Amino acid sequence: WFEATCEFYDKTPSLGPSVQIDAMDKKELHEEFQLDAENAGTWAHDVASYDTFMDMWGKYFPHVTIREYKTVDSKDPTRTALRMMMRLSRNLTPFRRQNIMRMRAIYATTIRKERTYYWHDRAMATSFPNMMLTLISNGAGQSAYIWPRLPNLDSGAGIQFKLVGTLVHGCCLVLHLVPPWVKDDSNLAIHCIHDTLTLVQQQRLKLGHTR
Fold first, then answer.
1. What contacts 198, CB < 8 A, 6 or more positions away?
2. Which helix (H) or strand (E) holds 177?
3. What is the spatial distance between Cα 61 and Cα 141, in angstroms, rounded to a whole number?
4. Tens-place pLDDT, residues 101-138
5. Rounded to two decimals, what is the model's pTM?
6. Any bridge partners for residue 20, and if so which?
7. What ranges make up the beta strands (E) of 51-161?
8. Given CB 3.0 to 4.6 Å as the disulfide criterion, which of 2, 71, 160, 166 pairs with 137?
9. Residue 93: helix, strand or coil by DSSP?
10. Burial letters for 60-72: b for 16+ Cβ neighbours within 10 Å, e otherwise?
């Protein structure tokens, strides 16, 4: 079950054989394993406990990790909805269980296929920088990054900032430190991308690439 599950997650070619599981709690993953095992016909008392599950994980799959940083929207809502459907009493019939499991498998396959496009384009931009440019941008919540405490301020929690990172494949990583009063909307995204492209142009000239 664990081997098959890992096939649906994001492999990281830049980190060797490492596999990163979408941000979720380890106990939640064990609950998903329990649900699949019981739906496959395993008696509940024969399903591996959480401790046994974690021992197996550490011994046989040390290269599999859960993403370290989690944001508010990090969990996959579609996957969560499909998992919740399996727990509803009206879906306990064999026919409905099989249909939901089939939908979960199809969804996992589409996610996997979607990621292959990202890997392909990223590799193309790195190999042919004069022909193609790709980037990925994401921002961290205010609770993840807090400015160090400054003197003469009443607040003891420190000043919170948003951190927006834009990775330009094969070129550079641009970080924006955004004040907390700036809204996380399309204007911020466009501003960060505009600044990034300006810096990318300078960096590519340093690397000997064309504009």
1. none
2. strand 172-178
3. 30
4. 788 778 877 877 777 787 888 888 888 888 888 998 88
5. 0.54
6. 10, 65
7. 64-66, 135-140
8. 166
9. coil
10. eeeebeeeeebee
Beta strands in 67-171 (DSSP E): 135-140, 162-168
Q: Render pLDDT for 49-107 as a digit per residue (tens, 0 to 9).
A: 999 999 999 999 888 887 654 444 445 778 778 777 877 878 777 788 778 878 877 88
How many angstroms separate the CA atoms of 49 and 36, rounded?
14
| Neighbouring residues of 138: CB distance < 8 A, sequence distance ≥ 6 | 164, 165
> Residue with structure tokens 């700036």?
182
Is 86:39 a contact under the CB 8 Å cutoff?
yes
Long-range contacts, stretch 170-176, CB < 8 angstroms, 24+ apart: 170/125, 170/126, 170/127, 170/129, 171/129, 171/133, 171/200, 171/203, 171/204, 171/207, 172/199, 172/200, 172/203, 174/199, 174/200
- Angle separating helix axes 77-85 and 94-127, nearest 10 degrees: 160
For residue 137, list its beta bridge partners.
166
User: Percentage of the chain surpassing pLDDT 70?
Assistant: 75
CA distances from residue 131 to 6, 125, 198, 211 in whole angstroms, order as listed: 34, 7, 18, 10
Residue listed under structure tokens 């993403």:
67
